[in-house]
């Protein structure tokens, strides 16, 4: 397929998608096209189906209805070029796996395999991914001994090493301090700019990534809205979505939400135990 044709197809194409567990419908009638290089934030309260949406894109969860393709391929297939960054959580201190081994896992397995021919090429790719996240200095240390921010940079490198066309991020900034939140989100943004990778970024808190976000998918209680941050993160739209009065204030380039919202959507997020990429 020519480069021109590859550029033309959407990174993610969701048509009439629905997902229900038993009698509970998380979302239905979801149509969404994400273009290469686009940054989409996925927001919503606990249990609204953000992680389930990522699982669908990873091929780990079947839709109840509708269809999804990633760069023209079905989710989870050997050809789907998807990188995944999980929630930050501390790795076992005794873990002796080195950073280079962790990043190399991003090239293994059939789900995201790339069919590399030589060991030298593999080493080159792993080295380049580690360098791109500024982790070269500690890449040969056991990962269990590294700080949370250093570990998260290596997870970003692991997600990038297979040259993904779509990068799925599940609350990748959780537990990081502000400086590291900034560093990790800058890395993700740099990738989509340099390689035209589409980014789908699940988060409870839009402010750390607000300057990068092109569009928002906001899920609440079986309803959703898709649009530019200013359109979706407005008093009118969120009041409609939550079915109660919500006030959105924009101060100093940040979005603050007042009213019933705090009790509805700023609970501690759940930590998902599945190691979906490892
Ligand atoms: N396999 C499953 N079977 C039944 N129910 C499920 C399954 N997976 C998820 N759910 C339910 O679907 C709902 C949405 O879960 P999901 O993890 O997608 O939410 P979320 O928006 O990511 O939440 P959080 O912000 O808390 O991480 C939850 O109520 C969850 O219990």
UniProtKB/TrEMBL annotation:
It comes from the Bacteria. Residues 12-246 form the ABC transporter domain. SUPFAM superfamilies: P-loop containing nucleoside triphosphate hydrolases. Pfam families: ABC_tran. One of its GO terms (molecular function) is ATP hydrolysis activity. SMART domains: AAA. Keywords: ATP-binding, Nucleotide-binding, Transport. Transmembrane segments: none annotated. Gene3D superfamilies: P-loop containing nucleotide triphosphate hydrolases. Belongs to the ABC transporter superfamily. This is Zinc/manganese transport system ATP-binding protein. It comes from Amycolatopsis xylanica.
